[in-house]
Amino acid sequence: MKKISAAFTALTTGAALTGCTFGASIDTLMTPPKLGPEQEQIYSKLTTSLNTSNISLKYPKSGKYLSAFIIEDIDGDGGNEALVFYERNNHAADENPLHINVLDKKEDGEWTSAYDIPAAGSEIEEVKISRLGSNDRVNIIIGTSMINRSEKNVSIYTYADGRLQEPPTFSKSKSYAFFDVVDLDLDGQYELFRLMGATSESEAMAEAFKLDDSGTYHRSYLELSDNFSDFDISYGKVGDSEMGVYIDAQSGAGSVQTDVLYMKDGALHKVFSTPERSAETIRPAGCGSFDVDGDGSIEIPVQVTAPGYGESPESEQLRLTDWKQVIGDDKLEKHYTSYYSVNDGYIFLFPEKWEGNVTVKRDVVNDEIVFCAFRDGKMGRELLHIFCAEDVPSREDRISSGYMLMHTKGDSACLALIPRNVDTEGDGLSITSGDAAVGFRYRD
């Protein structure tokens, strides 16, 4: 829920569905990709070393590395090694079938299998290869999961003297919900950042690991503001810091709220000093934090009842969205008001003159949202219509009626119309097509 990307794209272009059974691994549902010449050689050397070709290649579900073959310099010697993920098809019932094999390239260009080790889970979630902290050691960071993908673990390996080794100073005991390698404090060195969801035994938690010159991982951690589970992550400025982590977390059925973290002097810090301050950001699921004005700072959306709907049943109310920025410590300041259609993916930021003077209504007949002047508790003249077309004929029909094209995605499109009515009351709320273009945003 950075945002955590769709795992199905981790398999190769052109893969095709071949049928499925419940509980089957995703890798068994897709046609494997055609191997390149170097991968063919690596695969041949692997099967020769295993004395069997009865294996299945395993593919990371997300991230930079989406192949069963990762060819990188993992020991810092200037030459590449190959990491291959596979599972034995004829494994014993008590054996973990998922393995990692390391192959070295000899001076004559031939590959040879150097080391083989069982992985921590049944599926490869994501792989990152990076230095951490001030140490020059290359870290092979592998996220794995069990077959149901609910229990996930992060392991760190180093490759030296022909062996994959797990450093003893890194804690991997807790199941993670998200991990990344990122320079949290902008000191030019990377940290491993990890989030764990709440369980019956522990609170939701964030951790950051730095690696020092001696090879020791230093852990900074803190508890999050609620019993969070699923996470969506955004990075952006926070207060006086150039780098913050905005965590949109599922905090209840159909709702999400935000915690904001940053790193300073080697330690993680929370912006919201109390759980109650974080709870002020609770809103419906899908309403995610976003750099709505492109200035590098993330805004947190908070929904409010639109003017004129205060006495209406909640099911009939329309809502506006205030976009708030973190200002200083523990403070949120409203920067924009908007209408945010989560289902259709668009945001319309109100011009400053609309603040407190405009509301919205739904035109059921024409299936569009209408922005109206609001004065003395009543809706007035119409100022803007936004319509989302699901196909090309609907789009072309609206364009022929004078609508402006604001955004397209495949056959769907968002269009806007500025009614040609006269400001007889002198409210000064009319906007131009340029104003409409400036205020329109779309979230892919």
UniProtKB/TrEMBL annotation:
**Cross-referenced SUPFAM superfamilies, in alphabetical order?**
Integrin alpha N-terminal domain (SSF69318)
Under the heading PROSITE patterns, the entry gives: PROKAR_LIPOPROTEIN (PS51257)
The lineage's top-level taxon is Bacteria
Signal sequence, renumbered to the chain = 1-18
* Record's keyword terms, sorted: Signal
Against InterPro entries, the record matches this protein to: Integrin_alpha_N
- State the name under which the record lists this protein: Repeat domain-containing protein
Q: Which organism is it from?
A: Ruminococcus flavefaciens
